[in-house]
Write a sequence for this structure.
């Protein structure tokens, strides 16, 4: 069927989202259009609907980390750590914001995924500086670059296989560009806090409670947050050092809860309630994202995304890389839950042309950037949770900075390849 017809449902979704309609309203309208155009039967539609929800709710690690982060926040552990950092940096909060963004980047690179780490680091930086748009965008950009160039990620493996090189070599080839974007993300976060100041919403009474505490008491109360951050960021490295798996998502939650009971004002019942309460936002958000994703799956069933990806094949060889990058970026916006799936549509075309490893890497990063303005990307949902915003609010904060990063990446690709 013609691309011009199959793309109509996707256009409907995008237009309604730009009109600030609820993402489920936009998804439903696009999904209905896809069902009508494709003549789908109700059995297939029902299956896609249920699969979309179950796929999102099956992503358990971010849920566990989100609940743990909310628990230590309820216990005052994150605020205590932020106050300690303020004292250590003598009020240089902009630098603190930048360093936490870098921690997010390093954690993402080591783990090969961003959302689970974001569940922990976003509340930390939110408590320190608030929902500064530049900081939110820096978190998104550094996560996107981290998981698309990490040797531990599926995206990097796909890019390396398409280039016909070893994963380690491909990651090494992409390292200079990873460093460039990490430095830019750090600078963007520092600039944003320096320009806007702290946007923390806590009251003066709440802040004074922590400002009046001794450094020793703050350190004691901050240990659960520090331990959670270390286990999330360094868990796999510590397991390798020990020789067996101690720090898993399950043990991370349990150990953090035990430390919370021992070192903070919360007792066992209050800690348990805080853990349960902390999961509610992310579960609700992922349920909504799952419904939206089910409608996107209906559009995908028309072959729309494959047809869009096929445009790259007809582009002149001299510009095929930037064209492929732009297409990957655009496809990732409505289908951002499956970055690797987008790459399987785009990379074969570049592989057939024998383009180098860096070309595949640039497409992977472009796809990752596109996911950061996608309503179905779990890292965007994690940012929304951490900064007490909603998904569309995070997308609006990310938009111009992600577009700027994409433009810079495209210029790099044209110069390098």
């Amino acid at each position: 069927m013609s691309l011009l017809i199959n793309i109509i449902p996707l256009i409907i979704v995008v237009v309604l989202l730009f009109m600030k309609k609820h993402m489920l309203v936009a998804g439903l309208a696009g999904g209905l259009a896809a069902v009508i155009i494709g003549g789908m039967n109700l059995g297939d539609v029902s299956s896609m609907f249920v699969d979309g929800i179950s796929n999102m709710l099956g992503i358990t690690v971010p849920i566990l980390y989100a609940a743990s982060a909310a628990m230590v926040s309820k216990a005052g552990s994150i605020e205590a750590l932020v106050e300690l950092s303020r004292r250590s940096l003598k009020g240089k909060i902009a630098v603190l914001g930048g360093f936490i963004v870098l921690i997010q980047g390093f954690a993402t690179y080591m783990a090969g995924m961003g959302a689970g780490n974001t569940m922990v680091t976003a509340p930390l930086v939110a408590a320190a500086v608030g929902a500064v748009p530049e900081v939110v965008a820096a978190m998104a950009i550094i996560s996107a670059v981290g998981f698309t160039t990490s040797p531990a990620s599926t995206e990097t493996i796909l890019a390396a296989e398409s280039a016909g090189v070893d994963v380690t070599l491909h990651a090494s080839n992409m390292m200079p560009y990873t460093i460039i974007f990490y430095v830019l993300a750090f600078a963007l976060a520092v600039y944003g806090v320096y320009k806007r100041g702290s946007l923390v919403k806590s009251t003066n009474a709440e802040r004074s409670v922590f400002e009046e505490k001794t450094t020793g008491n703050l350190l004691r109360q901050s240990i659960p947050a520090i331990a959670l951050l270390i286990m999330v960021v360094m868990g796999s490295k510590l397991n390798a050092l020990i020789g067996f798996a101690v720090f898993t998502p399950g043990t991370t939650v349990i150990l953090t809860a035990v430390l919370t009971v021992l070192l903070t004002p919360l007792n066992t019942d209050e800690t348990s309630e805080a853990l349960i309460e902390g999961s509610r936002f992310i579960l609700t958000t992922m349920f909504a994202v799952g419904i939206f994703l089910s409608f996107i799956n209906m559009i995908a069933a028309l072959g729309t995304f494959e047809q869009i990806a096929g445009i790259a094949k007809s582009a002149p060889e001299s510009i095929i890389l930037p064209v492929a990058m732009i297409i990957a970026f655009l496809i990732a916006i409505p289908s951002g839950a499956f970055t690797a799936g987008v790459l399987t549509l785009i990379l074969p075309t570049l592989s057939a042309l024998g383009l180098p490893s860096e070309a595949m890497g640039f497409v992977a990063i472009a796809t990752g950037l596109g996911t950061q303005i996608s309503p179905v990307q779990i890292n965007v949902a994690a940012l929304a949770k951490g900064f007490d915003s909603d998904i569309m609010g995070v997308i609006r904060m990310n938009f111009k900075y992600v577009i700027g990063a994409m433009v810079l990446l495209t210029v790099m690709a044209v110069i390098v390849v």
